[in-house]
## 1
Amino acid sequence: MNKMDLTKPTRQSVKGLALIFIQGIRQSVRMFWPLVLMLVIQKEIFANNLIWLFIGIAIFILLIIHSILFYLNFYFYVSGEEFILKKGYFRKKILTIPLDRIQSVNTKQNLIQQLLNVESLEIDTAGSAGKELKIHALEKAFAAELQNKLRSGKANFKSKDSNDEVQLPETEEELILKLEPVDLLKIGISQNHFRTALIIVAFGFQIFQKVEEVFKEKAEEYSGEFFSFMSNSSWAIVLFLLIFFLIVSILFSLFRTVFKYFDFKLLKKGNAYRVEAGLLNKRNVIIPYNKIQELNWETGPIKKRFGIYNLVFKQAVSGQNRKVQLVDAPGCLTQHLETLKTDLFGEDKLSEINRIYSNNYYFRRLWFLSGWMPVIFTAPFLYTEIIYLLAAFLWFLGSAGFSLLILKKRYFKINNDQIRISKGAIAHKWKQMELFKIQSVEFRQTIFQKRRSLASLSLMNASGSMTIPYIDETMAKEIYNYLLYHTEISEKSWM
């Protein structure tokens, strides 16, 4: 695999045998661990240790045979203007991908692949689910060369009329952002710890369900004891547990940040960005400018104090199985953000345009839904409780303040080429895209909006939608008509 000639069928690295074998073990454990656990508990079954030895040897031999057959029957090559991947020994699959339909080519490297010094390569195309288009074990140099060639399409392969390989001009990579350990600490501290807590709770609940299936009586007994302990505990113990859980959430956020963004680098080469990061699972993602549908960035109270933004490139793969690809770049400073905006959108002419805010009726609607409605629906059940009056009053004030924060951050700016939308409450989020990326525009007006001459707009692109809520009806119609006209006459490619 030293010299790349993809006109001939090419297999993965021989190291892929070990990777396939380990993946087979993982899949077997994932499928049969409940059965094995029950057999271990029922000691009278298979009391003879020799039977366990024979079963282990049989599984080991079967996995070796599977690994060899899978490796020998997995290969790829280029024929004409198509990339072809074949795999499978009992059920064979042939995946054919036109080179000019390839949308993105990314490499990843989990802990096992790092030990083997190989990478996996994933190919996303227009109209493909993408996950099947994966080569599991390639030498790093080979994977990098193949990634560049596939991303560039047929221009980088041998042409029909010549035996000489066409090479695109090489440009040096420019480092835009590199995260140091201090940056990772800032990012971890500024994460949404409430969301992290919900992830921990959901993960714990899934584990409890798995354990409950095997030890049903014990699980019910322990859960009953826990709820009994909590109901009889003092406020001090409950407060201690809440603080402990908050500390665990913060530590989990820090560890998650380190695992995901370790050695994070954002680089630029030509008209594309490249992101590489990860501790146990390394990723190497190439983001061409023309594939980016919109640029999102956000900050919050803690992020703002640190002077950092979390930035997200939103891409999309077209076709029936459309999916959105999010590539984030945390820890961006203001100069990084301005550099990226200039690369993607040119000179920032939107800064000279006045903000257009949503109508104040938007605040009243939010307050009614988040403040009045919960209180009205719960009042018949709690109106006799004195503490309910205090809770309802605090809820009213909190929901009014929260709704006001949303209104103050709900605005947009638009010119002939671009649009930027702002939203948020505690955090502040922005979305920006070029108008030719818009694929459809929806004009919405409820009966309540019509009475007040208001309307909302929804702008759809290949990666999702943007909403402009509760603006003047006349303005909404003018923007709606202009955007429809713009999408019809634009000849620029959105992908």
Note: Residues 158-168, 318-322 have pLDDT under 50 and may be disordered.
## 2
Amino acid sequence: MVTTVILGMLCVYLLCFCVMFMLISTRLADKKMGMDVFALGNLLLGLAYILQLFGGAPGWSAISVINHTLTLCAPVTYVLGAMRFFERPTALLRPLLTLAATYTLAQALVQLWLGNEARHALLAGACALLFLLMTLVALYGSRTFAKDLRVEMLVIALLIGGIGALNAAKFAMILGGGMASLDMNGGFQKVFYLYMSFLATVLPPCAVWLVLRRLTDKLRSLAAHDPLTGLLNRRGLMDALSAHFRSRSAEPAFLLIVDIDHFKPINDTYGHQAGDRVLCHVADVITATARQGDLICRLGGEEFVVVALRSDSTGVLQLAERMRAAIEKLEVPDLSRGQAIRCTATIGVSEQFASVQAFDECLQQADAALYRGKKAGRNRVEWVLVQGA
């Protein structure tokens, strides 16, 4: 009786969180982050347990077969939802229908050849293996594709590992003790469904937390990056500079302003869409030419800022010249006219600076050097003139 009550509560949990996931997915519009698939997984598992409640003894019947198929399809659905959450989109209905048909056939064959105990052992063994693989993937993800969610992935791996261990124990008990081990009044079944209820209570809030983490990270990224080029904006640059100078190994930096020459005529001649393509291509060239660790920002309009870290005056001038030469060689396709748009850039370089507070002064230095370069004919690199030199 106790186990039946626990199982009934589990069904309520699953169906309620199914509705919650669906409501969240509707608010996420086109990028649902797998919430709609998690809702389907909860629905499948909830229906499986409802069938178990009303299906009677665990013998061979259509209800039992459907119950087992839904029970196995549910965690696979969660896996597909997790893939979508981590931006690895995959098909949904075809894999699930294929799995359902294959496993239903496997149940019939096992029942025919080995009997009812073997069919129940098949489900427990398949679930144990599946949860083991999910645990290993979660552990692997905590060190690779989900490093930003390391703690969360470790917690999820621990929780999934627990249900995997319980299914492995059920598999061993069925093989050793037969169908008596599945008695709903037995101690093991109580522990099993208590743990499942615990998971049904804990994992959905974990999924919601992961979605909130991703949304807030995305908002933070949008606030720190230029929407056209994907480079840092001024706010993002200042945050990155603050983080750099707070580190114990922080070294002085140089500031470069890269300004595209005659950009207004490009917009006027080829149109603003072509001008945006030029900005994006120049941003790509600057990113490819800069060294690893350098900070790159679109300051506004056709101006870019590069903060060269861990360099000396000779190295930063060589960096600036490489950028200037690479931009001069750049050819941006003009889709409307079938020809290439070419441009050049003038670069102003500041003195070294060693704090965020010195950024504005160095920006003025680089801007003054840039202005001299423009007056001297453009398409050149100009170093700041040091007062008194």
Note: Residues 2-224 form one domain.
